[in-house]
């Protein structure tokens, strides 16, 4: 997971109410229904064109490689198509040869299979019939009215006369009829295959022209987005097909070798069939495994060969599905497991068996379009493998659901790659800002806000024992470069953060007061800051906003306070209450330095020197990490003879 997450835009001044779906969504629904209907009724035309386009994606890397060998476009395309056609004919010829060899041995295999079926029938069906006959005889012997048996005997003894044999003779077929019977079943597939190859050749020849036309249709005003979408689709499809071709070819080869070692007849045929059927999701491998298992049972007088064949398919498919494919396709496709199942069901219902084979690449194209076309973004959400919610949104959703345990589970996963301060800044703070935004627009009532706040406090308390990586030291000012640096103790990556040599006054329990703003969730920010300061050896205590109210500031205990940090999740402009709060704290603790943490980094105060001078704080921080660094810098400066001023935010 990346170390930085995309920042959310600031809240608008006026938030409009959510729109109720109405007639505006009706055209989109109608377009979707018409598209599905067109795909269904036009499948005879669309299936060959789709296969041709996908075949052009497969052959595009081959054409590019041939063009690097100083071949022209036309010779490279024709040679690539010829190689693909040769491969298809080779596989078809190999399978036909193996089928012809197996056909000659079928009578012997059928006799062995009949003997095994008779044995199984004697072990199962015959025994069940014998048991039922015994039970029936026992019931008849214990019947309360045996005189009725002779009355039923004559009716059972009656037998119908045997039927007369009838023989129907068909005339011998003429050579023309025999030719028609042989050619007609294969004529339609051959015609479709010819259409696919011809269209694929023309697509490869006119690839750049077709790309420009698609860009024109999508809108030439947005060349960047359209070009990115097309390049992404071509790259993903090419990678997917290449990876799947290598994996399926390797699986078919290994399966053929394994069946040859087991001595199953037609091992090359079954290996080729296993490799081809892996293009069919879910049911391809069971269909490919059934014929060799039955054939092994027919060839071997015992059951050893059939059991070994079944064991190989079980082990091989498990290894491919659980080890090889997750590694190979982990970065090749962007489909979620649920979307694969939905796509297989949808496309098989729409286009039949060929739709089941094309389900993965077609769904992948839809996901790519959803990632680059705004109106189709719902496709990426429904079918893509990216999380539906960002980490801040997921954290906020868990808080709304009152489930801090799942939020902790997410935190443990994210904390494997980042320090605690980064998790607080990038996930928790942004999630709390979402809650603050809902509070501002009235979408989060008070009765639901309290559980959210309590759940956030619970997560922060549970992360108190998590180790924190030391914050990067601030850049040394020119006037301080001659001062000796305090030694930093060594630490292991698993150990606690290094504790710098801090003045005694900064390690007392109330050295830093983390004052919560007057927002309902600002106390959570103060808790996180106090926790991080404690991990770096600074004494910190959280002060609720009620303790610094106008009538309570005089009672605030400031003994031993060296610094005051005011924490705000959401604040705009230069509010008067913040200026007056700083004025009261100045009067109460004149020696303490004051830092204002305004966690939205786009806050205007953080970049406006005039506003900063109006508010009157000694420093400003845009993140918890910046606040920790500012406090450490102030503590180190206080321990040197020439104490420096607190650096503003970003310095």
Provide tags for this entry.
five-stranded parallel sheet, 23 helices, 651 residues, disordered C terminus, mainly alpha
Q: Compute the CA-based radius of gyration.
A: 38 Å
Mean pLDDT: 77
Shape: elongated
Number of helices: 23
Work out the strand percent.
Answer: under 5%
Task: Summarize the biggest pleated sheet.
Answer: 5 strands, parallel
- Biggest sheet, spatial arrangement of strands: 2-1-3-4-5
Number of strands: 5
Pairing-aware structural class of the strands and helices?
mainly alpha
Query: Distance N terminus to C terminus?
Result: 28 Å
Q: Which percent bin holds the helix content? A: 55-70%
- Which blocks of ≥5 consecutive residues have pLDDT under 50? 1-22, 470-499, 641-645, 647-651
Summarize the helix and strand pattern as letters.
Answer: HHHHHHHHHHHHHHHHHHHEHEEHEHEH
What do you see in this structure?
The chain contains 23 helices and five strands. The chain starts with 25 loop residues before the first helix and ends in a 13-residue tail after the last helix. It is mainly α and 651 residues long. The longest helix is centred in the middle third of the chain and has 40 residues, at 223-262. The protein has helices at residues 26-41, 43-68, 73-104, 106-123, 125-141, 148-157, 175-205, 207-218, 223-262, 267-277, 284-299, 304-328, 337-351, 353-372, 377-383, 391-400, 404-414, 420-440, 446-462, 522-535, 576-588, 609-615, 624-638; strands at residues 512-516, 540-543, 563-568, 593-598, 619-621. Helix 4 (106-123) packs across helix 11 (284-299) and helix 9 (223-262) runs antiparallel to helix 12. The radius of gyration is 38 Å and the shape is elongated. The relative contact order is 0.06.
């Amino acid at each position: 997971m990346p170390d930085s997450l995309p920042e959310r835009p600031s809240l608008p001044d006026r938030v409009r109410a959510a729109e109720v779906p109405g007639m505006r969504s009706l055209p989109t629904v109608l377009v979707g229904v018409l598209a599905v209907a067109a795909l269904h009724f036009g499948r005879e035309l669309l299936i060959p064109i789709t296969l041709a386009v996908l075949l052009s994606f497969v052959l595009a890397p081959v054409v590019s490689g041939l063009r690097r060998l100083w071949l022209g476009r036309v010779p490279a395309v024709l040679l690539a198509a010829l190689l693909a056609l040769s491969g298809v004919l080779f596989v078809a010829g190999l399978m036909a040869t193996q089928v012809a060899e197996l056909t000659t041995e079928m009578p012997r295999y059928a006799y062995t299979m009949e003997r095994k079926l008779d044995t199984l029938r004697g072990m199962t069906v015959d025994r069940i019939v014998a048991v039922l006959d015994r039970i029936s005889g026992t019931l008849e012997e214990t019947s309360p009215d045996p005189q009725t048996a002779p009355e039923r005997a004559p009716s059972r003894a009656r037998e119908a006369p045997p039927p007369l044999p009838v023989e129907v003779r068909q005339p011998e077929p003429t050579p023309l009829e025999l030719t028609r019977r042989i050619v007609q079943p294969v004529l339609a597939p051959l015609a479709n295959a010819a259409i696919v190859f011809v269209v694929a050749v023309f697509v490869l020849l006119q690839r750049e022209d077709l790309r420009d036309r698609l860009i024109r249709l999508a809108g030439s005003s947005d060349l960047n987005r359209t070009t990115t979408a097309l390049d992404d689709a071509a790259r993903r499809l090419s990678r997917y097909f290449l990876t799947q071709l290598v994996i399926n070819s390797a699986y078919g080869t290994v399966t053929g070798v394994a069946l040859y070692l087991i001595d199953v007849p037609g091992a090359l045929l079954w290996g080729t069939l296993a490799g081809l059927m892996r293009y069919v999701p879910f049911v391809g491998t069971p269909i490919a495994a059934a014929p060799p298992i039955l054939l092994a049972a027919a060839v071997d007088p015992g059951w050893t060969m059939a059991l070994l064949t079944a064991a190989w398919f079980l082990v091989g498919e498990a290894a491919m599905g659980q080890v090889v494919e997750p590694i190979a396709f982990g970065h090749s496709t962007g489909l979620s497991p649920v979307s694969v199942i939905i796509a297989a069901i949808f496309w098989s219902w729409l286009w039949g068996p060929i739709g089941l084979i094309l389900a993965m690449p077609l769904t992948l194209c839809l996901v790519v379009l959803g990632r680059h076309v705004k109106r189709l973004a719902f496709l990426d959400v429904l079918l893509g493998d990216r999380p539906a919610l960002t980490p801040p949104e997921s954290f906020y959703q868990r808080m709304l659901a009152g489930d801090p345990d799942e939020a902790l589970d997410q935190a443990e996963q994210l904390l494997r790659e980042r320090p605690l301060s980064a998790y607080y800044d990038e996930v928790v703070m942004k999630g709390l800002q979402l809650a603050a935004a809902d509070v501002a627009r009235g979408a989060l009532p008070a009765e639901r806000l309290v559980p959210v706040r309590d759940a956030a406090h619970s997560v922060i308390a549970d992360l108190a024992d998590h180790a924190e990586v030391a914050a990067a030291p601030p850049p040394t000012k020119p006037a301080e470069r001659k001062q000796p640096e305090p030694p930093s103790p060594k630490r292991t990556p698993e150990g606690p953060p290094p504790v710098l040599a801090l003045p005694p006054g900064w390690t007392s329990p109330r050295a830093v007061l983390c004052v919560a703003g007057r927002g309902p969730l600002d106390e959570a920010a103060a808790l996180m800051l106090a926790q991080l300061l404690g991990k770096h050896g600074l004494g910190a205590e959280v002060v609720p906003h009620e303790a610094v109210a106008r009538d309570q500031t005089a009672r605030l205990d400031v003994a031993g306070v060296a610094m005051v940090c005011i924490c705000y999740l959401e604040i705009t402009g230069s509010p008067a209450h913040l200026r007056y709060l700083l004025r009261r704290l100045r009067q109460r603790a004149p020696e303490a330095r004051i830092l204002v943490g305004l966690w939205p980094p786009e806050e205007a105060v953080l970049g406006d020197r005039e506003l900063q001078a109006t508010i009157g704080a000694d420093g400003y921080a845009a993140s918890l990490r910046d606040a920790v660094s500012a406090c450490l810098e102030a503590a180190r400066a206080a321990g040197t003879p020439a104490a420096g001023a607190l650096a503003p935010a970003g310095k």
